[in-house]
Amino acid sequence: MSTTTEFWDVNGTSLSTLAWNIDTLNGRQRVPMLRGEDTKVPFRPGAIWRPKQPDSRTLTLAMWVLGCNTDGSAPVGMNARSKFNDNREALIKLFFSPDTQLNLTKRWLSSGAIKSATALAELVSDMDATMLGIDGAQFVVDLRLADPYFYGASTTPAALAVGVGAAVVNPGMAAVQKMTIVFNGALTNPRLTNSTTGVWVQYTGVIAGGASVTLNTDLFTAVTSASTNVIGSITHQGARNWLPLRVGSNTLTLTASAGTGTATITFQPPYI
To answer: Reading across the β-sheet that carries 187-188, which strands appear in turn?
Structure first.
């Protein structure tokens, strides 16, 4: 039972209840630091600026826990101290997960509606508690996000026809770098171009009708519908990533030497 519509949860368990809760927004709204260095050149003042990559980050949840039920009612058949211990143990079990990452989901009110996005996180603090009497405590949960972003729901815009530009909107807070691109035959040498960023990615070869080639821009893989690895047939230009989408509207166009097939993309908008 959450106390608000704007709440966080871990693996489906709400962190906003009357038995335990997050005390403040401080520590939860940090943006990722940038990884990379500018290039220093001898006998030249300063340095040459280079693009950077968002690095991993740690979010800090300042929390409290009390000896009551999640709806705030008194426990039945036990005293508040015993319930406090149970609640504290439940939170330790929730956060302490050495073998797997936690699904950390946040919800926030934006443009009159609740948005939701999920990140993968791991506990990197000891959750040491400061007691509040005998049946309450405060503690800090530090969660490290190896991938610094929260990701929204998967979206697949309408298929792109050859020669027809279309606007694809990235509603997130950072550029999309992870996506799946599918070239659906019949197509020869299909190229997908984002004219907003000046970037394109191309498969060189023939895709027969009913066949397809799937590109994963996160794993840098390219596989046909017959499970053939065709990574050697992929070329791209304009960015280190195959086809990044800027925040907001991007104009994508599919071109090909021949054929009337289509291209589809699927991505999850990243949030900070």
So the answer is: 206-207, 187-188, 258-259
pLDDT digits (tens, 9 = 90+) for 109-144: 999 999 999 999 999 999 999 999 999 999 999 999
Using the 8-state DSSP alphabet, how is residue 38 labeled?
P
Question: Is the model's pTM score more than 0.70?
Answer: yes
pLDDT exceeds 90 at position 2: no
Contacts of 85 (CB under 8 A, 6+ apart): 67
Would you say 95 and 44 are in contact if contact means Cβ atoms under 8 Å apart? no
Task: Give dist(CA 187, CA 161) in Å, integer.
Answer: 11
> Hey, what CATH topology would domain 8-149 get?
Elongation Factor Tu (Ef-tu); domain 3 (2.40.30)
Could you give the CA distance from residue 245 to residue 263 in angstroms, rounded to a whole number?
16
How many whole angstroms separate alpha carbon 138 and alpha carbon 126?
A: 13
Q: Average of pLDDT values for 163-185?
A: 97
Decide which of 2.60.120.860, 3.40.50.300, 3.40.1190.20, 2.10.50.10 is the CATH code for 160-271. Answer: 2.60.120.860
pLDDT at 1 over 70: no
Q: Are 157 and 179 in contact (CB under 8 A)?
A: no
